[in-house]
Amino acid sequence: MKRLLALLSLVLLSTLVTAQSVLITPGAQSINGDSSSQGQLNAYGSGLVVGPKVKLSEEDPASNMHTMSCASEIFNESFAGTLKDPTGDAGYTGGILYDCDFTLYSTSASYLTTQIDFQVLDTESDGDTVYVLNYSNSEVLGAYSGNELPQTLFVNANAIRIKFKTDNDANVGAGFVLTWKSIIKDTTVAAIENYSGEGLVFDVGSNAFWSGKHAPLDFENRGLFSTAMGYNTNASGQMSTSIGNSTSASGFFSTAMGYKSDAPGNYSTAMGSDTDASGDYSTAMTYFTNASGDFSTAMGRSTTASGRSSTAMGNNTEASGYISTALGYESEASGRYSTVIGSYSKASDDYSTAIGYYTEASGSYSTALGTRASSNGRFGSMVLGDYVSHSANSLKADAGNRLLARFDNGYKFYTNNDLSISSIGLMALHNANSWSSISDSTKKENFIASNGEEVLKSVSQMRIGTWNYKGQNASKHRHWGVMAQDFHHHFGKDAYGTIGNDTTIATADFDGVSFAAIKALEERTRELQSDLASEMRFSASLELTTEKHEKKIEELQEQLQKQLQRNEAYESELLSMRSETMSVRAESRTVQAESKALKEDFKELKEMLLKSVAVKTK
Fold first, then answer.
1. Whole-number Å distance between alpha carbons of 335 and 76
2. N or C: lower Cβ tally within 10 Å for the chain?
3. Integer Cα distance of 284 and 313 in angstroms
4. Which backbone phi and psi does 587 adopt, to 5 degrees?
5. Phi-psi bin for 60: left (phi > 0), alpha (psi -120 to 50), beta?
6. Residue pLDDT, tens place only, 333-349
7. What are residue 80's phi and psi, to 5 degrees?
8. If you classify domain 62-185 with CATH, what class do you get?
9. How far apart are the C-alpha atoms of 492 and 385, rounded to whole Å?
10. What's the CA gap between 593 and 347, in Å, rounded?
11. Among 268, 225, 263, 221, which residue's Cα sits nearest to residue 244?
């Protein structure tokens, strides 16, 4: 019995080695003490191990008899029992292939290990074997055959499989009978008395380890499996740890470290100085931090994480919303799922995000970034602001679901990867009121001049008019424009490749086509103006010729009028001088002939004048 009890102390170690035990009692100590009467302080090499008071199960193995079954594995939870081979008290039969399993297991908190003793062992050596295995990993802990009884086996496992396996030859024996008994903790350990609050104490009853200086009342309320180290530390929660000065770990599985750190929440951690982790699964670290929300984290200085699953880091930040995050200085995240990063910023509504300096995201699903940018309570808005020094210049959202941005020195967007080769994109620089595409000729290549007439011809064939996008209110959202399919059909390819696609139109390409059309129209206009100038010069020449003709006609008319007046004078004189001589008549006939010639000249001039007028009119 004494040999068995000496072996029981090995339960607390994973190795089976011979140990020297020193029994310490309130008034006496002895070497190789009996661990069935008190806890043990065991010396192993250079270390000391304090073990609990233990005992063998009081159950009688004979009261729990079992015979192995090869049809199905048997599971047994008894602290003690007897196991026989598949044939029981009779010898097992030759010529049969046995492969049988029997499993011992325990879920009791007082269970430590199992003692196995063979009462009978008579099998074919190296042919028919009894195996003892760790059930969890199938590790073989012992293999027994022949007819020599082995030493007692101690198995430190919660589940043990016993396997009997044979070959099928005729060499057999009487079989085997074994007993098992569990070694368990003895809960009748005497309490620690007259503890002054100073020193090092390991209580095997509660498995609590306390060292340093503590209040005696705190030690009386120590938690199971707790650890307290330092000055005035208190670990009252089960599995809790308190280390440092005036720290307290009262929550289940809690940890408090540092100075005046308090971890009352279950699974909480408080580290640093004056930290408080009162929420379950919470963490408070550094200086004057408070993690009161379950699953919350507070780190830095004077940070507070009061929302469930919230995080507050930095200096004087607060995360009070559910799953909220506050990082930086004097920033606050009070909305659910909100995030604030920076200084003097707030994210006060659900799913809001504020990043920067004096930014505020006050609308649900809103975002404010930069300096003095505010979503202004507008749902789904995004505000991006550059640096401004006065609150009067704050940028505020003016509508929900809208992006509002201000950058005093403008915007640049690049759409290519390697800017060392070429910069492709667009920009709107300081005081610009529209986007500018990068159109530097030194950054272009493979230039092909446009054919103006072909451009005009293509434009004339395109559909141009008003329309609205599908799903839009036709009475409110009408637009002017062309169709991307038409544009791509006429202008989507050149000698080098493809331009754009058939569902969108790039404004730079549209501008290019528009300028090509304008240039073609300008060329047409220039040609028409040249033709018009020629026509105008010809018309001026005609006018000059007509004026000359009209002047000539006027002169002829004047001469004709004078001639008519002379003729009238002559006729009057002839009438009065009928009696004159024939010579006068001859002279009169001559005058008449001249008059006739003048009339013919007049007639010819008149016809020329009419022709000139007709040409001018035409």
1. 56
2. C
3. 10
4. -60, -35
5. beta
6. 999 999 999 999 999 99
7. -150, 155
8. mainly beta
9. 39
10. 120
11. 263
The amino acid at 366: S
579 pLDDT band, cuts 50/70/90, is low
CB 86 within 8 A of CB 128: no
DSSP category for residue 151:
P
Give dist(CA 386, CA 406) in Å, integer: 6
Who's near 522: CB < 8 A, 6+ residues apart? Answer: none
Distance in angstroms (rounded) separating the CA atoms of residues 209 and 505: 76
CB-side neighbour CA atoms (13 Å) of 142: 19
Residues facing residue 386 across a β-bridge: none
Give the pLDDT mean for 203-216: 83
Per-residue pLDDT tens digits for 342-391: 999 999 999 999 999 999 999 999 999 999 999 999 999 999 999 988 87
Domain ranges for the chain: 2-51, 62-185, 532-617
Residue 602: exposure state from Cβ atoms within 10 A (0-12, 13-18, ≥19): middle
Distance CA 146, CA 121 (A): 7
In order of 100, 402, 479, the CA distances from 473 in angstroms are 80, 19, 12
101-120 pLDDT, tens digit each: 999 999 988 888 999 999 99
Residues 104 and 160 sit within 8 Å (Cβ to Cβ): yes
Closest CA to 609 of 563, 545, 564: 545
